[in-house]
Structure formats: C-alpha cells, structure tokens
Amino acid sequence: MEHKDYKSINKSVRKKDAMQLLLGKPVYTGDISPKDALVVKLLRSPHANAIVNTIDTKVAKLVPGVVDIFTWENVPNNRFTNAGQTYPEASPYDRLIIDRHVRFIGDVVAIVAAENEKAANKALKLIKVTYDVLEAVLDFRKAKDSDILVHPEDNWVAPCEVGGTNKRNLVASEQSEYGDVDGVMADCDIVLDRTYHTKAFNQAMMETFRTYTSYDRYGRLHVISSTQIVFHVRRILSHALGIPKNMIRVEKPRIGGGFGAKQTAVSEVYPAFVTMKTGRPAMIVFTREESQIAGSPRHEMEVRVRLGANKDGKIRVLDLYTLSNSGAYGEHGPTTVGLSGHKSIPMYTGSLEAHRFNYDVVYTNTMAAGAYRGYGATQGIFALESTVNELAETLNIDPTVIREMNMLKEGMLMPAYYNEIANACALDKCLAHCKEMFDWDKKYPVRDMGNGKVRCAGMGMAMQGSCISNLDVGSATVKLNDDGTYTLMIGAADMGTGCDTILAQMMAECMDCSVDDVTVFGADTDASPYDSGSYASSTTYITGKAVEKACDDLKKRMCAIAAGLMECSPDEVIFEEGQLRQINTDRTVSIKEVGVKSQLNNDIVPQATASHSSPVSPPPYMVGMVEIELDKLTGEVTVLDFMSVVDCGIPINPALARIQAEGGIVQGIGHTLYENITYTKKGRPIESSLMQYRLPTRLDMGNLKVEFEHSFEPTGPFGAKSIGEIVINTPAPALAHAIYRATGVWHRELPITPEAIAMGACKNNN
Amino acid sequence: MDITLTLNGKKITDQIDPDLTLFDYLRSKNCYSVKCGCETSNCGLCTVFFDETPVLSCSVLAVRANGHKITTLEGLQDEASEFIGFIADQGADQCGFCNPGFVMNTIALLRENPDPTDDEIRQFLAGNLCRCSGYEGQLRGIRTFLDSKKSR
Amino acid sequence: MITFQKYVKAENLEEAYTLNQSKNNKIVGGMLWMRLSTANYNTVIDLSGLGLDKIEENETCFKIGAMVTLRALETNKSLNDYTNNAVSTALKDIIGVQFRNLATVGGTIWGRYGFSDVLTVLLTLDTYVELYKGGTVSLAEFASMKYDRDIITNIIINKKACKCVYDSVRIQRTDFPVLTCAVSRLDGEYRIAVGARPAKARLYGDDEAVLASGITNESAALFAEKLAKQVPTYSNNRGSAAYRSQLVKVLTERNLIKLGGLM
Question: Which of A66, A121, C161, C197 has the fewest CB atoms within 10 Å distance of its CB?
Fold first, then answer.
C-alpha cells in the first residue's frame, strides 16, 4: 500500500510541551510537589548478600526533624515485583518493601522519613545495623545451580510459568528450535562459534527516580511519579502495600527521561509506605548514586552465537544461547532475554534453513536489572551482527553484499518471529540507501592517515518490535469541546519522546483539524482510559491505532448530533473537510455548532473511547554505518560520521523520529566506547556517579545523519510502526566492526576501551 | 547568615544556613528551572549566571552570592525566546530536564561569541549533558538560529 | 555535600591562616571536589575577598592568584601565547565551561591531584608556589610536600624562552585523563611532566642528554622509550599500569616531535 498525502501525519510539528520545557517551567514531579512533604531517604546495604541481624533506630529517631524510621519488621510480608508489566506478570514475585535478607550492595535496609534532608541524612548515619554477612554470587556465569541461593525463601512465586525456580537461582529458562540445526550445521562449509558479553548499562536519564505521595480529599493515596506506567504502578502499590486499587490514584507530570528505567516501579513504594504510615505527604528523590547503583539497568548478557554458512556467504543456520543476569531481583528478566534471539535471528530469514535459541536467566547478588531501550534485542543484535561481519571478513565478501544475500525481505514468513509475515519491510531499501548516503565503497577500505592513525568503517543492521503482541492494550478517549476543539485523553506516558504530540497529530489527521485544536491529557489512572503504558515501542503503533478507532466512533456521534440540527437521519450525514454535511445537499453544520449543540438538550455524548491490541508486532528495521579514526598507539577511537536509515513504516513526525534515532545512536555509542559497569571484589559498583559513568558528551559522537525509508504496515495507524527502541541497536556492531577493520582484532565485550584496543592491537602484532 | 543579592533583577535579603548551596537556595526561591542531574558537578543542569558568568549552582555556596547578581532562566525568558523556537523545531527539547541548563549556557556562549563555529558550540556546551537528543538536533537548532539571524 | 556551622570570608590572609590552623576548619576554593565529601567542619574559610583572583604579568613573570579560575587561565591570551596554547589545551576538556568558571588554580594545585591536567602542564614551566608562611617553593617541590595548614597565595611562572606542548588520553572527552603528558623547552632545557599515572604528575629532564643534539624522530623515540621505563605507573579502573606505560611512550614521543617542529 502507498502512503497518502497527509495533512498532519509525516509533518514535523513542535512538541506540544516544547516551549514550557525550553523556558524551564515547573512541570516535573520535583517542581509541583509541596515543599512541606516529608523527605524520604533509604538506608542501603553495604553487603552484597547478608541477613540483617539487629537493627537499632532509637538514636536515629531522636534526631530533631526525624518523623519515623521503618525496617523489615514494619512492612507487609507480600512478595511482589516492581516490573511494570501486564498482569499476571512474567516477572517473579520476589521482593518485599524491605527484606531482612539484603541481596545486593544498595538493597534497602531502612526507610527514614524526616522534615528535611539534613535530618534524614543525619539519621541514616545513626541507624545501627549488624549483619550476618553471607557469601555472595557475583559472577553470573557461576550463578545457575550455585550452592549460594539469592532467593532461598519459600514464599517466592512465579505468576507465569517461564522455566524459573529460585532453588536453582533461575529466573527463567527456555529452549526452542526450528529445523534440523545440528544437521545443517554439520553440512556447512564454515561455522563460527563466538561469545559476546555486554554489561548492565544504565539509562542515566537526566531526572533520577522520584515520587511524591499524599492522601487526597477522599482519603485515597495520591501518587505523582516520574513513571512510564501509571496503571502498573497502581497495581504494584496495591499489591505491595496491601490496599485496594481503588484507593490509589497514580499520575505522571512531565518526565525527565525514562528509556525503560521508569517501566519499573523503582521509587514509588517508599514514599507511599511513609504516607500510609504517617498520613503525611512524602517525597523521595533518588540521588544520582542511588539511580546508578539501585536503579533498573540493562540486563548483562553473554550471547553465544554459532553461525553456519556456505563459502559463497549463504547463512544457513543460527544457534544462539543467551545467559542473562537479572541481578538480585527478577524484574523483566524472563522477557528481555527473549528478544536477544527473537529480534536478531529473523533478520536472516532470507536464507536460514534452521535456527535454535536457548536461554537461561539467573539471579546474582548485583543490582537488579530492568527494562532499557532495546530490551535484549540490543545485546542479541550486537552478537549476531558482529558474527555476520566476521563471516563477511573471513570470506572476503563485502559486509553489505553478504546482507543483501541473506536478509529478510518484504512478504517473507518469519519462522524465528512467531511465524509473522513481514508485511512492511524496507530493510533492503534501508541498506541500499545507507550505503549510498554513507559512500560505503569509499569509506569501507582502511586508509592510513599517518602517525599511527587509520580511518575505516563498519556496519550493522537491526530490527525491533512495535508492541507486545496479543498483550499490550492501548486506549484513547477523544471528545469534542463546545468551541469546536478536541481533547485527547491517554494513559500512555510521554517521557520526552513526544507521544502526546504524535498522537494529537493522528487525531488531527482523523478529524481533519489542526494539531493545535487537539488538547492532550495524560496520564492519570483516575481519568485516563487504560493503557499498558509507554514501553515495548508500542505507543505509536498500539495507542495510535486506538486514537484512530476512537476518532471513527466520535465522528459517528458528531454526525448523529448534526443530524438533529439538520433534521435528517444520521445515515445521511458525513464528516468531511472539518464540517458535517447532509449527503446530496449543500447543507452543512460546523464542528463548533455540533459542539454547542452537544451541551444543549442533547443525549448523544460527543466522546468516544477505544482500546486496541494487536495479534502481531511488526518490526521496524534499520541500517547503521560508522566511520571512525582510530589511533593504533593510544587505542583512542574518534567517531567521525554515523549514518543510518530507518524503516519505521512512516514517521508520524519526522523531526521527532529523527531525534529519537539520534538520541538512541548516541546512547549506543556510549555503551560501546565509554560507559562501563565494573564492581569491586565485594560487589560494589564502581561507576556510581556521572563522574565515573561516562555519558557521551557532544564532543564524543561525531556527525549524525538519519534518513528514512517508508513502508506501509497494514495493521499500524497510517501504516506506521515503531521507532523508539530500534535506534540503539546498530552502534555496537558497527563500531566493533570498524575497530576490527582498523586493528584486525574483534572485540566481543562492551565497552571497547582505548586500552582494550591498544593492548589488543599489541597482542595481534606480536 | 544574612545575605543580600540581586536575583533575576530583584534585590533580596535573606537569612540562610552557611552550608546551603546556591542550587538549594534558588529552588527555595521558586526558581524551578534550576535542575539537578548529579551530585558531582558533571551534568550542567544547574547552570545559572553568577554576575555574568555561567556556573554550576550546585557547587556554589549561597553565601558567596552575597553582594552579587544571580540570574536563572526565570530571569532570561525574553533572551531565551529569541532562539528556543529553533530548538523546538528540531524536536530537540525532548524530555526537557536538561533544557534550562543548556539554554542558559547557550545564552552565555552567544553573549561571548555571537557567531560561533559548530566546533566552538560543541566545545562551549560540552559540560551540558543530554541523554535524549543525541546533541545533533540541539546543534542544528542553534545553527539554524544563527543562520536566520544573518539573513535577517 | 560537606556540612559546616560557620562561614568566614577572610578579611586578610592572617585571619585566614589563623582560622586554618584548626583541623575543624577548612579553606574552600571552587568547592567542586570538596563538596563531594560528607565531612562536617566547624568553619569554612573563603579567600574570595582578598584580591587573589587576578593574573598579573610583568617582563619576568606571570603572577596568578590562588583564586583565579581555570577558565581565566584557559582564556588568558598572554599566558597561552607564551605556552603555545599548551595551557588552554590542558584545561579545555575539564568537565565544562561552568565547572572551569568555578575551579580555582589554588584549589587544584593545593590538592596535588593525580588526575590534574593543570599540575602536569605547570610542572613543565618554571613555576613556583607562593605560600603565605612557607615562602616560595618550586611547583615540583610543592607537589612532593606533605599537606600542611599553610595557604597558597599565588602561583608564579617565570618567563623564559619557552616552547610547550600538551596532550592527554581520555576514554571520553571530558573524563579524567588516563594519562597526561606535557613537554617543554625552557631556555634550552627539556622538561617532561607525566601525570594521571594515576598518581600525581612527576617532572623529568633530559638527564642522559638524549636530546642534546636536538629533537629528531630517532632521539624522540629513544627518549620516550627510556622515559616509559622510568615513569612509575599503576592500575585503576581507567587503565592498567602496562597501558599507561605504553601511553607514556606514545605521548612523550609525539609531544617531543611536535615540540621539535617535526610535524
């Protein structure tokens, strides 16, 4: 299908909140919460695995300004998960608000509530705790079936069967196979068997986790939180605190970035518990250190790829095994891992005869992982794309050519992707487009720049999904106002991505009005229609479709009201060019007249709500190419140009889609070259601040160029698919490839530091 | 301690704790544009002008502002409005949390160097971290603004 | 963040010095590193009212007040002309402009930090530290002195026939350096400073006269190789000792070649 000429779709309109944000208006959780809220601070464990033996808060409670201090003795004994997922959650119920058994350095030991920060901090220093320190399991390769159990407790519950058991440190485990993997592998001319390792990278959104809670005028718990998942937070709090859902209201103001971090209820439960216990408004703001050491980062993974191919470059079989480190708790453990195979292997559907994908997800005594943009696909794609690049280099075939030979093309059935059909796939066009834009043929050869420096290029392809199929629910309520404008109410969460704006663009397209005539409200569990939340790349694709459906319904209602004004049958009224006309006549009424009529002697509500779920999750596709200059003697890599072409169906807002891509690419560059996660021998994270955890600055990312290839996804709104997550996936394989081209060494662990490059090159030369 | 300073053009006198940071003081005076993204002087979100100089308010003692002029984005709405539309047109505002610090330091840059090169822009703003935008859109926005000024 | 009960903006150096004799009191510079601690002090002492924020220059020297900011140093035309921009090269990647507008020369030199770009570059100049009580000592000597309770008032850089080159390796551009290296020729004498080893910068000379007959590609390589064996390096989370030793060689050789005008 072709795209039409749209009025509001595929237009770069400003984000609805842009000027408020750029002028620094008070729109975030920390700006709108009252100053007299209790300050909530957490005492955190200095041990990776320990039992609290004694805890004495008497002296700490005497600090002037301290209101109360809570320990494991004060909290309910209901195990729950903080994962923001549809009920019943795939993640195990393995948490208590405070557990006597602390499982990583940073696990919560006590909650302090005080009138001010100074008093709270002073109290933290005065709480006396003795621990029975236990041996910890810190290496995720040694966790499965270890004698040390991270969760020995008997009330551990897995709401869904995902192959896990706490008695083996196993969060989840699965095997799947298509075709005769071993048979095809044995028949291949070349088999590459490679293992890749990626770390627990932090989202490091600029606004750390924070939540404000109070009792509202009905005595209900009112939660204002920086979250991507208002409805899931309501359920999680109800579960953790043991209070009914209808006694909780959760809303989000503007959010200072999420990237998946805020798809886990990291901070909400603590002030909520304080408000419940004290009856007073309470506020928690995580320090950057807390966000770094007790947040919800990417799952550390080790991905083993076995790739079988013919000498001519035909990729015939893939066998992936992923070991994923969920850390001390299981949030998103069972689900992230699947993407490492399900969103990498299908890219080679064009030639694959067989594939296998097995995985284990384990507990360790390190920070619990969570959801981070890319959600497992990033790790799998780094591994698989690196292996394919290595195959190309080994066979001396241009890496773009080997992709052309093997890649997924439109119309193919994808056995490695739930047997979905690639109805909209411009991956081949993305490759051709990127190759030309980047000038691949000129930049791919290694060029000696003198003084130990070389320039060269690398590439990678990527896919992702557009929702969780058969699961995610997106909803929209649309209503006509008496001035002829509209209101769009959603439960999806704009975390800076611009979803409020792109959903308004869709509504404007449907209602044939200006985007300025659509007011957006969200997200608030009391007022918004149910939405799973903004994650899994789903807001454009799922909630967008709900907007379309709701608008269809609203138009019918407006026709009916107009029929009353024109004294004709509703069947005779059509909605066209922003007005309502009686068919076969010139009689029209304006939208405003319908709006006015809706409030005068009227029994047809000018409002509609629609929900949407999808049986498929159509992948967006992307090709990324990077040119670097590498200093062989110091190992320094300078990113010169990163160019990419994305197929997201159609960008609803090209400016915002481009920024999504650019932002994702720079995060990917950060994980590949600068950001690291290391621990002391006792399991204390070293990169606990932005002084140690090196986010890329604007001097570190070179020049970016992003363009689009259109496809038409029949199940998506206006043919659109997703964009938010896929964009983080190509930098790692592309950079590792370019570094190989420069040095002759494949780096299979991220980040690839200057030292690894310089010393690796040394080794190679010796 | 007593301090007297000029905050966004208004002279005020206050009693404060000696170890209060300028950041905390400004937030207490409802200058909510001033944000905190780290505790280690790395992120640039809390940038304000100390007299005419852009500084990290998280690392300045409020008492040091005694007798000085402090300006936050609340006091520079007009000067900011000259160019922020160009950032908005790129969609580079994104989550917005780093925007006030970025806008403040961009004002500082343009006051000091009204016609900077791309490299000068990158170098001057290197201390303003942004996790959403990938920086390129911010650069395009500033560049488009500078170009539009020239063609005016 | 540190906490304290009293803040005193010193009216003269004697007052600052007297207050500073108590271990419960502390002089603050730019407050950037100090605030990272959670220590509690009785009194912090501020030197910002003592006129120590000026860079003065005469025919024989630069006199840089302890409260001069790194940004002022970085943008001082005269000093950068004198050092062929080695000073601004050393300073421009320290976090950001707003940070360098606060960080003071006195604070950074007093700290004698291992990662200090400033200490590295100033060591290769004829630099002296003027202390309120302890007189004027060479920067190299000061760097090896124990922390006492004196006060830095000024940094003096004596002018000579100077050529200077600076380079560092950083994993990310505004990160702490993995290694710093400055090389100068002052009145014909070579001075090589290596810092972020990760211990604090040390100054070396051409003791074996390897460069005596001038810098050539060969003499630069030989000197760098010998120096790499001589400079003690250690491991931390930014790099291993072995990698740092390789960087000592690479940066020294490259800086010498640049200094010699060979590239």
Answer: C161
Superfamily of domain A33-136+203-293: Aldehyde oxidase/xanthine dehydrogenase, a/b hammerhead (3.90.1170.50)
- Position A761 scores a pLDDT of 59
The predicted pLDDT at position A578 comes to: 85
What DSSP string runs through A365-399? SS------TTTTHHHHHHHHHHHHHHHHHHHT--H
Residues of C in contact with A638 (CB under 8 A): none
Question: What is the per-residue pLDDT across A627-651, written as a single tens digit (0 to 9) for each?
Answer: 999 999 999 999 999 999 999 999 9
Per-residue pLDDT tens for A205-232?
A: 999 999 999 999 999 999 999 999 999 9
How many whole angstroms separate alpha carbon A239 and alpha carbon A76?
Answer: 10
At the topology level of CATH, where does A300-459+618-765 sit?
Aldehyde Oxidoreductase; domain 4 (3.30.365)
Residue C247 lies in a domain: yes
* Tokens read off for A439: 């000038």
Query: Given an 8 Å threshold on Cβ–Cβ distance, is B59 in contact with C6?
Result: no
Domain range for C11:
3-45
3-state secondary structure B99-117: HHHHHHHHHHHHHHCCCCC
* pTM of the predicted model over 0.90: yes
Minimal C-alpha gap between B152 and chain C (Å):
30
pLDDT at A1: 65
Query: Which fold is adopted by the domain A18-25+468-612?
Result: Aldehyde Oxidoreductase; domain 4 (3.30.365)
Contact C173 A692 (CB under 8 A): no
Task: Check A700 against C172: CB less than 8 A apart.
Answer: yes
What value of ipTM does the predicted structure carry? Answer: 0.98
When pLDDT is cut at 50, 70 and 90, the band that residue A764 belongs to is: very low
| Segments of chain C scoring below 50 in pLDDT | none
- With b for 16 or more beta-carbon neighbours within 10 A and e for fewer, the C83-118 pattern comes to bbbbbbbbbbbbbbbbbbbbbbbbbbbbbbbbbbbb
Residue C166, in any domain of the structure: yes
Residue where a domain stops, chosen among C128, C158, C188: C158
